[in-house]
Amino acid sequence: MNEMLLATVRFLNNDTKLVMTSRQLYKYLLRQCERLPSDACKHYKFSIKQSYKQHISESDPERIKEIIAKSIDNAKWIVKKYNQK
């Protein structure tokens, strides 16, 4: 993904503003995996890496914003799911 095209502001649970580029998103998602059990962590890290490779050539800024927003929401949901167990 072209990082110069991308600057998305999202509010997380603690209301901290983060500006996410594709690389920042990738690092954020990998760090979120560390909050999961080891088997789930391996699975989701692999999935994140594959998705990153799949979308690396995306150039539409609106589509990139959608991908980032969806990824953050999914990460929150997954972490919450495993923390409730």
TrEMBL record:
The protein's name in its UniProt record: LYR motif-containing protein 9
Classification via CDD domains: Complex1_LYR_LYRM9
Family: Belongs to the complex I LYR family. LYRM9 subfamily.
Stretches assigned to the Complex 1 LYR protein domain: 24-75
PANTHER family referenced in this protein's UniProt entry, alphabetically: LYR MOTIF-CONTAINING PROTEIN 9
Listed Pfam families: Complex1_LYR (PF05347)
